[in-house]
Specification:
Blueprint lengths: L1 E5 L4 H13 L4 E6 L12 E6 L16 E4 L5 H4 L2 H19 L3 E5 L11 H20 L2 E6 L3 E2 L7 H13 L13 E2 H13 L6 E5 H5 L5
Parallel strand pairs: 1-2, 1-4, 2-3, 4-5, 5-6, 6-9, 7-8
Helix pairs in contact: 1-6, 3-4
Length: 222
């Protein structure tokens, strides 16, 4: 089988690439993004890297047939520079990548609280992205798995001040985040990556599935 990843230089993307290479599940992996990730050992997997600006995705052609399409792409309004640019990354580029790959299974990270009707801009855009992806996958009869993590834990290649602060504080609050609050517990990036790989291996009965933060937290320690 062959896979494609967009966002492989990010926090989850790096963990995801390592997990996919270690799994031995894929003969070829296509990486698309603005920067090229560091790959220490690809084993028997052939890795092809295409560097491009995200608004040029529609001009590309996959180098081979894609079975599984993975998106771990995401930014912040501060990094993007404006709400419009945030939408261009977190919604437009993600949808364009899925459309480009034409894979039978699409595994996409959005966020806890994603809701197209939310008053919170970030959550609304994530919800609109889910909505657009679901519409596309229904129309083209392909599978879609949406992952909705809470605050991500791990060492980012680029600092995000609010998330860095959250990474410092939130782990200490984990013990009191029980019951209904457990769904908001921060989650390690490698657990999200592990969940994505796991769901790529499952026989998916539903055309569209959502994996909650609680679902992913269940893999902690496994």
């Amino acid at each position: 089988m062959n896979a494609a990843i967009i966002g492989s230089t990010g926090l989850v993307g790096q963990a995801l690439l390592k997990a996919l290479l270690a799994s031995g599940q894929y003969q070829r992996i296509w990486l698309l993004g603005r920067r090229s990730p560091e790959i220490s050992d690809s084993g028997d997997t052939t890795v092809t890297v295409s560097q491009c600006e995200l608004n040029d995705i529609g001009e590309l052609s996959p180098p081979f047939h894609i079975d599984h399409c993975y998106s771990s792409l995401g930014t912040t309004i501060k990094q993007a520079g404006s709400q419009a640019q945030f939408i261009a990354v977190d919604k437009t580029a993600v949808l364009a990548f899925v459309q480009l790959c034409k894979a039978k299974v699409n595994l996409v990270i959005t966020a806890l609280g994603a809701n197209p009707d939310s008053r919170v801009f970030y959550n609304r855009v994530k919800g609109e992205t889910e909505q657009a992806l679901a519409s596309y996958c229904r129309q083209h009869q392909c599978k879609l798995v949406l992952f909705q993590p809470s605050l991500l834990l791990g060492a980012r290649p680029h600092s995000r001040k609010l998330e860095d602060l959250g990474q410092t504080i939130m782990p200490h609050l984990r013990a009191v985040m029980v019951g209904k609050l457990r769904q908001y517990q921060p989650i390690e990036a490698d657990i999200v990556a592990k969940s994505m790989l796991l769901h790529s291996q499952l026989l998916l009965n539903k055309p569209i599935s959502t994996v909650s933060n609680l679902d992913m937290l269940a893999l902690r320690g496994s």
